[in-house]
Amino acid sequence: MSEIQLSGIYRFPVKGFSGHSLFQAVLKPGHGILHDRRFAITNGTASNGEWMPARSYFINAVNDGMQKFNIEFMADENLITLGGNKGQEFSIVLDDPESLEAANAKILSFIEPVGVKHDLPLPKIVERSEQGGHWDFTDTPISIINLNSVKSIEQRLGTKIDVRRFRANLVISGLPAWEEFGLLGMKLKIGTSELEIIRPALRCPATSVDPDTGERDLTVPADLQEHFGHAFCAMYARVSKAGTIKPGDAVSIDGPSGMNHEDAFNERAPDYALWPRMARITKCEVGEGETRFTLESASPWPLQEAKSGQRIRFHLDGPGWTFEEISDASSGQYGFSVEDSQTDDPLTGLLRRGFQPGQKLVISGPYGKGNDA
Length: 373
What we know:
The chain is mainly β. The protein has five helices and 22 strands. The protein has helices at about 95-105, 105-110, 145-155, 220-230, 345-355, and strands at about 5-10, 20, 25, 40, 70-75, 80-85, 90-95, 125, 140-145, 170-175, 185-190, 195-200, 230-240, 245, 250-255, 275-285, 290-295, 310-315, 320-325, 330, 335-340, 360-365. An eight-stranded mixed sheet has the order 2-1-10-9-13-12-11-15. Strands 19-18-22-16-17-21-20 form a seven-stranded antiparallel sheet. The protein has a three-stranded antiparallel sheet with strand order 5-6-7.
């Protein structure tokens, strides 16, 4: 494996709108990138800076054209300016309530081009509270994307994919595609900071929008599901040790975070069984007419509890994905018996040819009710 590096740092001052790159960032526990998602524009269903579901705001997943707006953050003047392609504009001076009030006086005409529901209260710019209101989850204010996973998507779709589509705060390179799913429950050292990896990011239609043109030109979640068998790309994290980071910093995997996997569960997040996770082959026997193999979790967090007859989805980078039924589930491992008489599906054929002990695979599941249901 080549050296893992931090390739980019991004901040998005107003939720749903364009962001900008940073030459460094100071990270603190309980916080994200300074001023990231500090503001959002409600669609009339939220009125303050406390956490609300994403669809309480104007977002790319719902409102076409948001990436066509320009944003400028003048840090020296504590000034954020948003401009539209029809000449509309407003500015917000940070920590200035009168400035925010003046911006809200203009917000209806400003946001009208992307679709305002007139049966709801007026749109309103809201500032994040101290607890953090405009991230996807209040406990994970940082998102990290693996550049090689984006390149894997490019190869499958046959088109260039701009990493900015995924609106991640940190971009890392040098990690093999999809290996980030093996970082659940792990610590990363970047610069002088440390982060804990909490959960994978399920992608929404916002990723289908070209960040340069603002046009919805792809169907990224559906494409991920079709070609990889899941719609996850990037990881959510939180800061465990304060420090400074900058592009070019080495990224090192620093062992288990000590966090229990159940503490990562969130009622707003997908079920744990759906999370793509890295598994490791512990034993494989290729015999006459069948192949038997077992696997265990390759991260500090366990495999989902399962029983025989349930199915596991194998997400094979490059070829695609397939299901296989569990023949035995015990001692934190899944066992499989793949017979030669099974389907002629070429992906199942890969399983029949066997694996080397220690080989890693991305899996999800279990699915179904099992034999004793």
